[in-house]
Amino acid sequence: MNFSFLVLHVSLFMRAIIAGRGGHPLTMRNFLLGSWEALGHVGQALIELWPVKPPSAPAFIQVQTNGHKHMHDLTAEVARIVNESGVRSGVAHISNVGSTAAIGTIEFEPGLQEDLPNMLDKLFPPSRDYGHEHAWHDGNGHSHLQATMLGPSLTVPIKDRKLVLGTWQQIFHLECDIKSRRRTVAITVMGDS
Q1: CATH classification of 59-192 is 2.60.120.460, yes or no?
Q2: Percentage of the chain with pLDDT > 70?
Q3: pTM beyond cutoff 0.70
C-alpha cells in the first residue's frame, strides 16, 4: 500500500466520521486501548507503516503481604513478562491495584527495605488524627497518604526485550496498609515487536 493510497483512505474515513454516515466509529476509548481494528483498512495500513504492537491485555502478579512495611522485589517477574511479550523496544507499565500500596524502584537490600517504610512512618505516622479516620475509623489514614506519596505505578523502558534498569535498581511493591493483603499488580507491555 503506497502513501497516497493511505492518505486517500484516511481522508475518506475522516469525512465519513464527520458526516456521521458509514465508516467505523473511532472513539477515544478505542484509540487509547489500541484498537486498530476500529480503523478498518486505514488501521491495517497504519500497522504496516508503523509496526507497533498495540498494548496487550495486562498480565497480573499476585503478591501476598505480611502487612505494613512489607516489601516485595517484582523485578524478575516483570522481566519475565516483558521477555514473553515479544516487545523489543517500548515500555512496561507496572501498577498496583488498590489505594494503600505503592510501586517504585530502589536498591532492594535489607537496609533500604527498612529505611524506606520507616521514613514514610516519620512523614505520615500511624495516628487516629487523620480526616480519613474520622470518616472510616479503620486505622489506615497514614497508609493512604504513604501510598499516594510514592504512587501506585511505574513505567520502565524496554530495550532488546529487557527492562532498562540500573545495576542496583529493582522494582518493588510496598504494602502501606496495616494488615496483610493479597495484592494484584498489573503489567502492561507496549512497543515495537
Answers
A1: yes
A2: 72
A3: yes
